[in-house]
Amino acid sequence: MINVLVTGANGQLGNELRLVAAEQQKTCSSAIRYLFTDVTEQDGVETLHLDITDSEAVGRVVEEKQIDVIINCAAYTNVDAAEDNRELCFRLNAEAPRILAAALKQRDGLLVHISTDYVYGKELYNTPCKEDMQGTPTGVYGESKLAGERNVISSGCRYIIIRTAWLYSEFGRNFVKTMLQLTATKPKLSVVFDQVGTPTYALDLARVIAHIVENGMARGNEGIYHYSNEGVCSWYDFTKHIALLAGNMECDIQPCHSSEFPSKVIRPAYSVFDKTKIKQTFGISIPYWTDSLKQCLERMDLML
Ligand SMILES: NC(=O)c1ccc[n+]([C@@H]2O[C@H](COP(=O)([O-])OP(=O)(O)OC[C@H]3O[C@@H](n4cnc5c(N)ncnc54)[C@H](OP(=O)(O)O)[C@@H]3O)[C@@H](O)[C@H]2O)c1
């Protein structure tokens, strides 16, 4: 039996992992047991409270529950607020991964840690970023996530780090939900067209993580991987497509420059990942971003 602990199970990715685990437990009598932290809804999954910044508590849970794998979906994800909350952001995004890795190392366990395109940002790229490209964060959130990666790598624990970008889900707060609401209620909207990247449906990423963990594919393949959906778009294109799929055609959506939305954080201008490594190593194919967006909106409809 492999015991898998999912942290941040109330977040976007954590919620999708709960769905994937539930699907998996229904369809096959697997040797995987998932445990989720801090799940508020009671849906039959095994749950426990864990503050991942508390090293004693983490060590105790890993030992008592005989944890073999941790999928760390917990993070400080408010990019703007991070600028004013450096210490808390670093505790969660840099120190906590070090704590998780140290606890797992004792048991030869595996840490699947999620990172971000915000580890990049200073240069304007015109070719998709590969995993070995040096990090150049422009804000506290990106700095903290890069520090977290480095702490995991230097821990000596077995690890898979997956950098993802533009994450959305039917759960939690995200760009898709905001734009669904705005394009349904506003007559006019300006959205930046000078930041490009690729959206990532969290359910697709959750399936890839489960595939790697459940098939024991991490051993011998430790390292950093890039994952988003396929394709490239700007936030403006993304919004146009959200409105199209939702039938919100009354809203006049116009492209604008990032300078029209002044912010404390300089956001990455080019968040396009080269995903060759994750596809080849784990034998996966990745859905195109508009197909996944359609799926997510369909699931949202089902949830209404
Ligand atoms: N969102 C994006 O666009 C994006 C893009 C690229 C990469 N990522 C990365 O992808 C991962 C998942 O992101 P997400 O959007 O799913 O995150 P999210 O929805 O913001 O969820 C984060 C979770 O972390 C939990 N958490 C906060 N402090 C904690 C602590 N001390 N101990 C335990 N849990 C704690 C939160 O719990 P509460 O619910 O109790 O607050 C929440 O459930 C993160 O590593 C993030 O950096 C996200």
Protein topology:
Layout: E1 2-7, H1 12-27, E2 32-37, E3 46-48, H2 55-64, E4 69-72, H3 79-82, H4 86-105, E5 110-116, H5 140-154, E6 158-164, E7 167-168, H6 175-185, E8 188-192, E9 196-197, E10 200-201, H7 202-214, E11 223-226, E12 233-234, H8 235-246, E13 252-256, E14 270-271, H9 276-282, H10 289-303
Helix pairs in contact: 1-7, 2-4, 4-5, 6-8, 8-10
Bound molecules: NADP nicotinamide-adenine-dinucleotide phosphate.
NADP nicotinamide-adenine-dinucleotide phosphate binds at residues 7-8, 10-14, 37-38, 51-53, 73-75, 77, 92, 114, 116, 145, 164-167, 172.
What fraction strand? 15-25%
Q: What is the CA-based Rg, rounded?
A: 19 Å
What is the CATH homology-level superfamily? Answer: NAD(P)-binding Rossmann-like Domain
The residue fraction in helices comes out at 40-55%
Morphology call: globular
Which cofactor or ligand species appear?
NADP nicotinamide-adenine-dinucleotide phosphate
What does this 3D model show about the protein?
It is built from ten helices and 14 strands. It has one domain (2-174, 200-229, 272-287): Rossmann fold, CATH 3.40.50.720. The protein has 304 residues and is of the alpha/beta class. The protein is globular and about 55 Å long. It is 40% helix and 19% strand. The protein has a seven-stranded parallel β-sheet, sandwiched between helices. A three-stranded mixed β-sheet has the order 12-9-14. A two-stranded parallel ribbon has the order 7-10. Helix 2 (55-64) packs parallel to helix 4. Strand 5, helix 5 and strand 6 form a beta-alpha-beta unit. The longest helix has 20 residues, at 86-105. The model has no long low-confidence stretch (mean pLDDT 94). Bound molecules: NADP nicotinamide-adenine-dinucleotide phosphate. Residues 7-8, 10-14, 37-38, 51-53, 73-75, 77, 92, 114, 116, 145, 164-167, 172 line the site of NADP nicotinamide-adenine-dinucleotide phosphate.
